[in-house]
């Protein structure tokens, strides 16, 4: 036998008979789990709280949970206001400027000013990061092109040498191509110079 419990958009299926009080307890547990899943992570909240306090100070679990609830509610409140603005302007994406506007319109002008400064610094950082990334990519492309052109140059074969043969002559009778003859002559001259220097 299965018992079906529908509670705040969740359907639970439990095997066996469940009394009314058990159903209520299960519904409370589901509601608490859903509530906890929409909250900021408590470890992050606790870490932020400890950064402000002296190192010897401790933060109770109750204090962390209270701050977790407050921070989550504050973020939801501001985001809801920014979302309403976007909806009125037929936009689907809430951006940083919308959050700053919402903070200001809700009376949190000090926060809005600080957020605007942060947002400007963030955008400047992102702009510089893109520029530096583009420069690095361009530099890498230039180096790669240089390597390819060097490889192509080193792989380029020596040009062919063509000679016109008279009737009755063959390529054997002319001997070596002129380029090879020049190379051999240069090598012989170098050997002679080395021989002269050693004497």
Task: Produce a short descriptive summary.
The protein has seven helices and two strands; from the N terminus they run ββααααααα. The protein is mainly alpha-helical. The protein has a two-stranded antiparallel ribbon with strand order 1-2.
Supply database-style keywords.
7 helices; mainly alpha; elongated; single chain; 199 residues; 70% helix; two-stranded antiparallel ribbon
Description of the molecule:
This protein has 199 residues and is mainly alpha-helical. It is built from seven helices and two strands. Strands 1-2 form a two-stranded antiparallel sheet. The termini are far apart. The mean pLDDT is 78.
Helical run tally: 7
How far is the first residue's CA from the last residue's CA? 113 Å
SS-based class: mainly alpha
Task: Please list the strands of the largest sheet in the order they lie side by side.
Answer: 1-2
The fraction of residues in strands falls at 5-15%
Unreliable stretches = none
> Quick one: how many beta strands?
2
Radius of gyration: 40 Å
